[in-house]
From TrEMBL:
The gene is pepQ. This is Xaa-Pro dipeptidase. Mn(2+) 2 binds at D245, D256, E420. It holds the Pfam family PepQ_N. Its EC number is 3.4.13.9. Residues 168-427 form the Peptidase M24 domain. Splits dipeptides with a prolyl residue in the C-terminal position. GO terms for cellular component: cytosol. Binds 2 manganese ions per subunit.
Amino acid sequence: MSPSSASLSALYRDHLEVLQQRAAVALQRGGYDHLLIAAGKTKYQFLDDRPYPFAINPHFKAWVPLTEHAESWLAITPGQPPRLIYFQPDDYWHLPPAAPSGYWVEHLDVQVINQPEQAKALLPDPSRAAILGEPDAALPNVVPNNPDSVINYLHFHRAYKTPYEIALMAQASARAVTAHRAAEQAFRAGASELDIHRAYLAACQHNDLDLPYGNIVALNEHAAVLHYQYQQAEKPTQSRSFLIDAGAQVSGYAADITRTYGNGHALFEQLVAGVDRVQQDLASQVRHGKDYRQIHLDTHRQLADVLVDLGVLKGSAEAAVAERVTSTFFPHGVGHLIGLQVHDVAGFQRDEDGGRIERPDGHPFLRLTRPLASGMAVTIEPGIYFIPTLLSKLKASAAASMVDWQVVEHLLPFGGVRIEDDVVCTESEPLNLTREAFARL
Ligand code: GLY
Ligand code: MN
Ligand code: MN
């Protein structure tokens, strides 16, 4: 699904309309006349002239498909087209942003500046404005105030994606899936983590900085490290298992996808198949009105069944859940909101005014507690891992007898399994962006 430029333009126009309406209500609630959004500034390493990777203000890229545009601004005044103040420096050390072009330009009032201070004269009265941005983005008398009343409203509604956003997220998923295919091939050929990572980047035409998060490229025991942050250059003597958690982005929208592969070892292949079955069942539960916390709790129940079936756990699945033994093997949440940020904002927010919906007791890493609603995009990412530090705590506990430690020993060298899809909640059947891309590509 790759919308033509014409249809993307129409989707973008409708998206802007939704954002305009949200902004108007947010401003009214906060008692402001204008919404000003600073893209942000390039930051430099301490005592050095090397910049950190630039991360644009997510509020900025919600309005325009621009991600590399430090020092630019947006000014939104209800009833007027959004004004984009587009910074295009005269710079011969770096490549400046190209002149604004694309499907989105005609919908905005675009003003080009070549000095950051020129933005000030093109912004409306800052004393009547909600100004969203980091403190260092301030201009004289234009100081970010980030009012809660405005931000809470915008963050709460950002969970509900527009069709334009879903189209871009579908493109991001397709981009990532093409690269997942290349990574699997590299794994099957016995490549090192670093070479698999390179194959991934080449296939999705990203460099490391383009990725929405650092790739997790984990062979063998490394698959047990939830956020494994290295890519080993040496080839392993044996490639028993491969867990890859890797995304891609399109116009600032993220994909977040995990796949795990075995290498013919029967028990591990069964484990992968078991987690995959659970994952698909959980993804089918992404329905309007569903309490996401229930999906998380159901994940524990279903993974307990897999662990009992495989002989990792003795006794009943119910007892394993009741004794919290499943938390050793599945020590993270089942997923999160996704969109402009991989872990998108407002996963706990009760309503437009803020507030908080608590996690269930005993589940400290769940990132989403809001009830699902049409338009929300979430990940569904169950996993079963063999994590030495957690296993040794379990072994020292009263629940140790619920585990067949020989089977655990047998599976330790494989690290673990995670399967993760990006799923959109609709009025009816969920739209699984990831499976849809894997089916097509
Ligand atoms: N890639 C990080 C996560 O799955 O949440
Ligand atoms: Mn995720
Ligand atoms: Mn992930």
